[in-house]
Amino acid sequence: MPTGPIIVGMTAPVNLTAALASFDDVYSPRIVARMNDYDVRVAHTLGEHVWHVHEHTDEFFLVLDGRFDVALRDPDGTERTVVLRQGDTFVVPKGVEHKPSSPGGSILMFEPSGTSTTGDRHEGAIPDHVDSTTGHAL
């Protein structure tokens, strides 16, 4: 009889390079792992996303490849852009309006399961190349 803890739901390792190579869609994240009630997602980035906000959760980004910019809008309407390159991380605090854009790259995100890629609310029409989703299975 085992004397140590029993690990339930353990899965095989996921290679992020292989995961990203398995699809081409941009701004259409794939769920590569789940941890507690969070999804670990990867996505290709290219072009402009949409201004949006997550009212109740922070959003964590890690740039795996290329460049990823995050425009931020303060409550007074002032905008600034954070430029991220490979290996950079950034957290958009909950309630902050933001608009990602990229000349091309890939990112990893941590978000609570069920979080929409276009937030709790967004500004304007969602571009055709942006997938408004809570993530797709890998």
Could you explain the architecture of this structure?
- It is a single chain.
- With 138 residues, the chain is mainly β.
- The protein is built from one helix and nine strands, in the order αβββββββββ.
- It has a domain of 87 residues: Jelly Rolls, CATH 2.60.120.10.
- The strands form two sheets. Strands 1, 2, 4, 5, 6, 7 and 9 form a seven-stranded mixed sheet that branches.
- A hairpin with a 2-residue loop joins β1 and β2.
- It is globular and about 45 Å long.
Describe the SSE topology.
Layout: H1 16-21, E1 30-35, E2 38-48, E3 52-53, E4 59-73, E5 79-85, E6 89-92, E7 97-112, E8 121-122, E9 136-137
Parallel strand pairs: 1-9
Antiparallel strand pairs: 1-2, 2-7, 3-8, 4-5, 4-6, 4-7
CATH superfamily of the domain at 39-125: Jelly Rolls
Count every beta strand, where a strand is a DSSP E run of 2 or more residues: 9
Instruction: Using the alpha-carbon principal axes, give the shape.
Output: globular
**Share of residues in helices:** under 10%
